[in-house]
Amino acid sequence: MLKLENVSAAYGQSPVLFGIDLEVGDAEAVTLIGRNGVGKTTLLRAVMGLHPVSGGDVRLGGAGVTRTPAFGRARAGLAYVPQGRGLFPHLTVHENLLMGLPALGGRADARREIPDLVYDLFPICRDMAGRKAGNLSGGQQQQVAIGRALTTRPRYLLLDEPTEGIQPSIVQEIEEALTRVRRELRVAVLLVEQYLDFAWAFADRYYVMQKGQVVESGLTADTPQQAVQRYLGV
Question: Which 3 state secondary structure label does DSSP give 10?
Fold first, then answer.
């Protein structure tokens, strides 16, 4: 289980997160929603170890990782696809995928090759292996970014706005691929998402954030989208 206990974070002297409690079970999909600027991205970065936590604990599989650097969390089973995808635009698709392999470190499953399932889930990674990542469409880049995260063989996958700027047909492909990732690899997903149709179709549970705090949570199956839409409107 990935678990946050009373987690707080700040930028300098400005607090951003206030006592966040959140958990993601094994192979579970959880979505985190809220308006822009409420702290969702900061929360993902804090989980990944890319932003310092000023209070509380981050626990992974029962072990505290609050002071563990990002590379250590990656080796422990966390993978992160940031908003904007974070690809190296001047490297090829294949070279971008290879960049995920060092995160395996000395793990027993550290085979230094890209898993076949990545190509099965996202054929674009094979079909455009020699193309520069910066020349791909937004949807193609997102598939490569998720594929790169999966080369680390994670237990928990953190996704920040994976449908942003992507055409509906590609969104559907990404949803189907992530569903297979959960079912076949037993990878859990923590998803920051504004597109409620996607979030509600994919996630088991949801958390709502406002002003750096969790203000509501529940099961997506028991909660109509309309009931949380007010948290996204301007």
Answer: strand
Q: How many domains does the chain have?
A: 1
Amino acid identity of residue 38, one-letter, is V
pTM for the whole structure: 0.93
Handedness of CA 157, 88, 141, 38 (dihedral sign): positive
Host domain of residue 44: 2-231
The CATH number of residue 214's host domain is 3.40.50.300
**Secondary structure letter of residue 117 according to DSSP:** H
- Torsion, Cα 103 109 115 116, to 10 degrees, reads 180
pLDDT tens for each residue of 112-157: 688 899 999 999 999 999 999 999 999 999 999 999 999 999 999 9
User: Rounded to whole angstroms, how far apart are CA atoms 30 and 97?
Assistant: 25
